[in-house]
Every structure is written in structure tokens, then in C-alpha cells.
Amino acid sequence: MKLAFYIHIPYCSKRCGYCDFNTYTPSELKISSGLNEISNNYIDLVLKELELAKSKIQEPVHVSSIFFGGGTPSLMEPEDLGRVIRKIRTDFVLTDEVEITLEVNPDSVDKQKLQQFFDVGINRVSIGMQSAVSHVLKTLDRTHNPENISKVTNWANEVGFKEISVDLIYGTPGESKEDWQVSIDSALSLPISHISAYALIVEPGTKLAAQIKRGEVDQVDDDLTAEKYLMADQAFTNAGFNWYELSNWAKDGSRSKHNLSYWLGENWWGIGPGAHSHLNGERFWNVKHPSMYKEKIELNQLPIADSEILDSKQIESERLMLSIRLTSGIETKSLNEKQITDLSGYVESGHLNHSDWQQGRAILTLNGRLIADRIVREILL
């Protein structure tokens, strides 16, 4: 079995205003001890869940990717993340070209710590840039210094990382097209091989959502957000980054193997509080709070909160939703007559590529990418 591991690190020094991820600050958890102790104790639990996962799978596993996400996994001690990599290498089989990614907050590392992450086996870093403009970062409630992005990416390059990605967010209230162009140009000046650019989604219950509701921050301008996507795609393409998923662009050979495993509906196991997994048509997810997670693990139990067996309709719906986001698109022979009829209208309108359609594939054009969700909703009805 081919499997990807996602290792969730549910800790941040501060919660960003737009974030609704399952992450906790030391103050929220009423933890007074240092991050060193948190790192060591939490990783002990992760190693135990890996043992429990091996017992559940009970078949040979080839691991294609390991992704340390969060939260802020770069706050952890490099040696502790090294223990996780060694455990997976011992209990499973790592493929020759295994991708091991670490999400990095640019304020949480220096060159020495990046070298230590590289030395324990991490071979790809994904750096949370978000924006190069201070007032945009302030609206997002991001605390990092934008000047640190250049330092960190260059350090990562110098210590030996061949795969360096940056994450950008566009559409923040108050962000002009000129601001966004500054962020695009700043990202493209870095020694990187991959870019993710996500439209800001204002999630209910976040600090940013409350600020918008109170009128302290403007609403998101959807038309302006669409223009920014077009700006980004043109600039990234001209710089040699090719789109391969709606929000992701990469140089040749640098597509994210881990994210592709999600989009292609492959198997993955999420380790840690709130992490989700998919294994041979079964989806399950862990308890969310670190205290409950610890309690389950110490009882020698998988920390699964709930699960479901995907039926054929769910599997097909997810295949369509994910495939349409990729450059490979959807094979038309896998569609029914109504879906083909519905999609043919988008070929005529220029939202699906005409030549690809004639060759049996439904693939989004640039304008089609702007309305991908609408197209998917139509063929799922």
C-alpha cells in the first residue's frame, strides 16, 4: 500500500486572526513550561500513535511523503521531528524519492535550526509568507517580519534544501492590486521551486470574521480577488512556475507529492489531534483537543473520534471535485450523458479547453479556474 503521513503539530505561539485550524497557544492550554518540554512530550504521543497505526493497517506500507503541518511545526525541536522520521523509517518503508515537508513560520527559525531540520531528514520546506506588505500582514494578524522571508528562504537554500515553497494569501481587505503585485514580485525574487496562492476565506468564529461583522475591517471584494488570481497566474507562469492545481504552481519536478496524494484520492494517515485520515475508502478523524488526544494514547487506544465508510456516490463526488482542480482534469468517458451535456456548455463559453475536450478530457481554462466551484456544483446535481 502507498501511504502519505500528515503529522499535525497543534501549537502556535500566537493565533492569527483569520485562522480556524485546530491549533492552540500555550496560554490557551494554560501551559507554563517551555516549548522544549511541549515538543518532547507531544512527540512521545505521536510515536505511540504511529505504533497504533501500524497495528491497524497490518499490511506492507510504502510511504511516499511525510508532512509536518500545524500549527507551527517549526517551533518543535529538530531532533524530536527526527524521531518521528526514524520511527516511520523503522516501522514502514520509505520510497526512494520520499518527500518530507516542514511548514515554517519565518520568525521561528534561524540558519542553525534550518540546518538541524535538514540534518534529521526533512528535504522540503513550506514557508508561510502570506504577504510582503506590512499592513496586509497586520490585517491578517500575522506577527512575522516580512523582511525575514528573504533571510529564511536564502538560509534554507544555503543549508541544502532543493525544494522550497512559499504560501501566499490574496484578497485580504485593504490589499490593493499594487500591494498584491509587491507580494508576487517579492515571492518570485526568492530561491524557491513552488508557490501556493490561496484566496482569503473568512471563516466564521475567527477574529477577522468578528472584525468584519463589526465594520472594523472591510468586506472581501470578490471581483478584485479574481483579478488578483489572474495577476498571479500570469506572473508565476512567466517566471517558469506552471499551475498544476487551482492554487498551486511549481517548477518542473517540484509539484508537492503530499498534496497530490490528497487530490488524487490516495491513502493518507493523519497523526495528532484533529487530524483526518483516508484508508481504502474509510475516512476517520481524531479527537480535537490535545488533552483528550493524550488521554486516548495513554490508554493505548487510537484517538479516533469518528469514522465513515465512503459509499460509491461520495467517492465519485469527491473524485469530480478534486480532479477538476488539476491540470489533468476529468476523463469525459467517466461522466454520464447529462454531465457531458452540462460541461459542453462550458467548452463553448471558453471555461473548458476545446482541444482537450475533443481528446476526451475536461480541463479548465484560465477563466474556467475562476468559476471551478460553480462548474463542479453543476455536474454534482
From TrEMBL:
Alphabetic keyword roster: Chaperone, Heme, Iron, Iron-sulfur, Metal-binding, S-adenosyl-L-methionine
GO cellular component: cytoplasm
Radical SAM core domain boundaries: 1-242
Gene3D superfamilies found in the cross-reference section: Aldolase class I
An MF annotation (GO) of this entry: 4 iron, 4 sulfur cluster binding
SMART domains assigned to the protein according to its UniProt record, in alphabetical order: Elp3
UniProt keyword Oxidoreductase present: no
Xref: PROSITE patterns: RADICAL_SAM (PS51918)
BP terms from Gene Ontology: porphyrin-containing compound biosynthetic process
PANTHER family for this protein: COPROPORPHYRINIGEN III OXIDASE, RADICAL S-ADENOSYL METHIONINE DOMAIN-CONTAINING PROTEIN 1, MITOCHONDRIAL
Family: Belongs to the anaerobic coproporphyrinogen-III oxidase family. HemW subfamily.
Protein name, UniProt field: Unannotated protein
Organism annotation: freshwater metagenome
